[in-house]
C-alpha cells in the first residue's frame, strides 16, 4: 500500500473529521458488545443467553446489536486503517468517539434492553440495584468523557501524519 | 448423544449409514467436485497462468465440510442430537460456502473451459434469472428465509423422518449459503455489482436474523428436541455462527478497504472516499 500513499495528496487540516468520529463510535459500540458477550455471557456467566421475560421486540433488538457489534468492530478498525493511510487520523478525536459510542451502547443496553425489553439482567442476584446503578453510571461517565473530547477536538488540525509522513504508514 | 433417550428420527429412518445410496451420492459428488477443480488448476498452469495456491486448499476443505455435514458419522449423529445437527448446519451451510466462494470456482472455469462452453457459462451468468437469483436481497431471502422455514415449520420434523428430504435440505443450505456468500464477498466476476452500502445492510440483516433465530429456538425448541439439547444447540448456533459471520465481515471490509485504496491510487486528486 506504500506506493498508493506516496502518490496521495497531503491531507488538508481538519480533513475527515467525521470519519474520525464514525470510526471511533463504531469501534466503541463494537467493543462494548464484544465485552458484553465475551466477559458477561461466556466468562462470568452473569448474563443469561435467554430469559423467560424477553419480549419478541427484545429478541429482535438483541439480534441486531449482536450483528452490529461484529460489523461495527471490524468496520471501525478498517476505517481507522483508512484514516492512517490518508494521514488524517487524530487519536484524541478517535478515542473520544470510542468512549461516546461505548457509553451510548452501554446505556441503551442497561436501560432499554435490560429493563424495558427484559432480554436478561446483569446478574441473577437478590439485590440488582447496585449492579444496574454501576452499569448505567459507567455508561454516563463514558458518554460525558467522550463528549468532552469530541467537542475539544472539533475543527482542530490534523497533528499526526502531516506531509512527508505518508510514506511511513 | 440424546440425554432424554428420545431420538427425533423415526425408527428405520437411519438411511445415511455407511454404504447407503445417499452416502454414495454425496461422496461421488464431492470427489468429482475436487477432481474438476484440480483439473482446472492443472490446465491453467499448463497454459502459463498460475492459480493462487490457497484456493485449491480452500475448495477441498469446503467440499469436505459440505460432504461430512450430509454423510458420515456427523450426519448420523445429527439424526438423534440437535447439537450435532447444528454442527452439521454450521459447517455445511455457513463455513463450507465461505471456503468454496473464496476459491473462485467460476473464474477458474471461465479461464480453463474451451471457448464455446466458457461463452455459454458467461452468457448464463449474465442472464436475467441468474442475476435475479444472485442479487443480494434474493440471496438473503433464500438463505435467511429458508432457515426460518426449516426450523419454524414441520420441515424440521419431516427431514428427520425422510433421508431424501434431509439431503435436499442440506443441498439447499449449501447452495443458498454459496449464493449469499458470493453476493457479499464473491471473487468471481459480477456483471452488475451491487453498492457496498446495500451489501453491508444485507449482511447485518442476515447476521441479526441468524442470532434472532438461535434465541427463538432456545425459547421455543422444536417439539421433538429435548430441552437441554435444544439450549446447547441454540447457543452453539449463536456463538459459533457469530465467528463464521465475523470472518465474512472481515473479508467484506478488507475488500472494501483494498478497493478504496485502488481508487485513490488511480485518482489521487479526486480524493476518493471509502463510500462508492
From TrEMBL, chain A:
Name of protein: DUF2243 domain-containing protein
InterPro entries: DUF2243_membrane
Pfam families: DUF2243 (PF10002)
Entry keyword annotation includes Membrane: yes
Alphabetical keyword list: Membrane, Transmembrane, Transmembrane helix
Domain of life: Bacteria
Record keyword Phosphoprotein present: no
Transmembrane segments: 21-44, 64-84, 91-108, 133-151
Amino acid at each position: 500500500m506504500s506506493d498508493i500513499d506516496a502518490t496521495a495528496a497531503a491531507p488538508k487540516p481538519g480533513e475527515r473529521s467525521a470519519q474520525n468520529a464514525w470510526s471511533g463510535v463504531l469501534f466503541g459500540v463494537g467493543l462494548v458488545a464484544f465485552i458484553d458477550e465475551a466477559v458477561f455471557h461466556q466468562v462470568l456467566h452473569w448474563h443469561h443467553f435467554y430469559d423467560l421475560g424477553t419480549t419478541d421486540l427484545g429478541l429482535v433488538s438483541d439480534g441486531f446489536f449482536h450483528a452490529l457489534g461484529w460489523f461495527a468492530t471490524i468496520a471501525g478498525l478498517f476505517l481507522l486503517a483508512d484514516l492512517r493511510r490518508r494521514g488524517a487520523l487524530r487519536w484524541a478525536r478517535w478515542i473520544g468517539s470510542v468512549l461516546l459510542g461505548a457509553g451510548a451502547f452501554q446505556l441503551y443496553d442497561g436501560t432499554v434492553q435490560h429493563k424495558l425489553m427484559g432480554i436478561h439482567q446483569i446478574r441473577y442476584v437478590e439485590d440488582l440495584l447496585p449492579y444496574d446503578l454501576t452499569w448505567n453510571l459507567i455508561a454516563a461517565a463514558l458518554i460525558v468523557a467522550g463528549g468532552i473530547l469530541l467537542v475539544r477536538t472539533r475543527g482542530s488540525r490534523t497533528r499526526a501524519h502531516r506531509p512527508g509522513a505518508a510514506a511511513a504508514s | 448423544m440424546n440425554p432424554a433417550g428420545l431420538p427425533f428420527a423415526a425408527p428405520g429412518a437411519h438411511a445415511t449409514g455407511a454404504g447407503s445410496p445417499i452416502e454414495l451420492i454425496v461422496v461421488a459428488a464431492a470427489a468429482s467436485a475436487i477432481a474438476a477443480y484440480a483439473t482446472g488448476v492443472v490446465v491453467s498452469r499448463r497454459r502459463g497462468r498460475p492459480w493462487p495456491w490457497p484456493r485449491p486448499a480452500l475448495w477441498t476443505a469446503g467440499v469436505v465440510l459440505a460432504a461430512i455435514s450430509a454423510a458420515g458419522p456427523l450426519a448420523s449423529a445429527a439424526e438423534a442430537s440437535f447439537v450435532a445437527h447444528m454442527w452439521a448446519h454450521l459447517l455445511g451451510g455457513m463455513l463450507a460456502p465461505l471456503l468454496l466462494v473464496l476459491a473462485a470456482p467460476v473464474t477458474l472455469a471461465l479461464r480453463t473451459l474451451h471457448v464455446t462452453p466458457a461463452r455459454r457459462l458467461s452468457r448464463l451468468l449474465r442472464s436475467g434469472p441468474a442475476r435475479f437469483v444472485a442479487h443480494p436481497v434474493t440471496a438473503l431471502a433464500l438463505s435467511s428465509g429458508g432457515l426460518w422455514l426449516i426450523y419454524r415449520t414441520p420441515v424440521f420434523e419431516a427431514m428427520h423422518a425422510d433421508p431424501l428430504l434431509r439431503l435436499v435440505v442440506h443441498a439447499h443450505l449449501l447452495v443458498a449459503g454459496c449464493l449469499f456468500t458470493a453476493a457479499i464477498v464473491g471473487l468471481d466476476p459480477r456483471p452488475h455489482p451491487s453498492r457496498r452500502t446495500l451489501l453491508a445492510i444485507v449482511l447485518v440483516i442476515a447476521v441479526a436474523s441468524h442470532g434472532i433465530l438461535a434465541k427463538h429456538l432456545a425459547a421455543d425448541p422444536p417439539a421433538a428436541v429435548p430441552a437441554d439439547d435444544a439450549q446447547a444447540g441454540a447457543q452453539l448456533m449463536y456463538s459459533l455462527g457469530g465467528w463464521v459471520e465475523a470472518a465474512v465481515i472481515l473479508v467484506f471490509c478488507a475488500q472494501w478497504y483494498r478497493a478504496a485504496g485502488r481508487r485513490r491510487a488511480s485518482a489521487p486528486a479526486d480524493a476518493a472516499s471509502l463510500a462508492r
